[in-house]
Amino acid sequence: MYSARVSKSACPVKAEPGIDSESTSEVLFGESVLIQESKGEWCKIKTLRDGYEGYVLSTALELTDSQATHWVCNKATLVFEQADIKSVVVRRLTFGSALVAESFNSNFLSLPSGGFIWAAHCLQAGETMTANMIEIGRQHYLNAPYRWGGRSSDGCDCSGLIQMLAIARGIELPRDSADQQAFLKIDIEYKDRQAEDLVFWSGHVGILESPDMLLHATAHSMRCCFEPLEQVIERAGGPEAIKRII
What's the predicted TM-score (pTM) here? Predict the structure, then answer.
């Protein structure tokens, strides 16, 4: 196995090595993976964060065992060619991207791979956001398009949204909703539900803003949105479980 980091702004993780294969997840810039095997232009990877396995294009990876020093805490940020906001933009990174960077001046971090990023859009590795998961979702994911397998603020699915909100608060969750449900051990009765509890249906998950309002990424409206819990239940049936994450 070889250690690598994602070198593209985002890259779909495929179920099989082929461009037409189903996208089951997504890795973001700077995330660490283990390359388990190579098949032509494809690599089978295992993500270090959550152990998720799948196939990505080898051109999306850079062989390195360097550790991230920062991560992007803004909805998105830009990498400039020079430490100047008027210089050429060479890359756009979304919320949750990981960085190997060092301080350049009071405004910019420099990336060894080239480019400069606005320092105020980043937190140090291991540093978490102070806002709660609902506010993080409102600021960084609200109205993002629904995208099967997505995890970024440019497009996400239900469990990708929940995983990224948890990561921002320093909480590690599995990638998929069924695994998230099994991972969380605190079961809540429907009548006792409260803000920031996770509500699970078969193949779907959302997080409560209040006992009666759900934040979720849904294929019903093809976006990340707030929706009355009662409306979701009318459409999808009663939830399988309610879990307390914090």
Answer: 0.96
The model's pLDDT over 175-220, given as tens digits with 9 standing for 90+, comes to 999 999 999 999 999 999 999 999 999 999 999 999 999 999 999 9
Please, which residues have CB within 8 angstroms of residue 174's CB and are 6 or more apart in sequence?
A: 50, 52, 163, 180, 182, 183
171 touches 162 (CB < 8 A): no
Query: CA 226, 232, 236 angle in degrees (round to 5)?
Result: 145
Q: Which residues pair with 39 in a beta bridge?
A: 42
Q: Among 234, 179, 225, 185, which residue's Cα sits nearest to residue 206?
A: 225
- The three-class DSSP label of residue 139 is helix
201 burial (CB, 10 Å; 0-12 / 13-18 / 19+) is buried
Q: How far apart are CA 209 and CA 178, in angstroms?
A: 21
Say which residue the tokens 């232009």 belong to: 41
Pairing of strands 108-110, 116-118: antiparallel
Return the exposure string of 4-38: e unless at least 16 CB atoms fall within 10 Å of the residue's CB, then b: bbbbbbbbbbbeebeeeeebbbbbbbbbbbbbeee
C-alpha dihedral sign at 123, 167, 155, 15: positive
Measured between alpha carbons, how far is 54 from 154 in angstroms, rounded to an integer?
Answer: 21
Q: Which residues lie closer than 8 Å to 121 by C-beta, 6 or more apart? A: 72, 73, 74, 77
Task: Measure CA of the first residue to CA of the last residue in the chain; give whole Å.
Answer: 35
Give percent helix, percent strand, percent coil of the chain, each to the nearest 5: 15, 40, 40
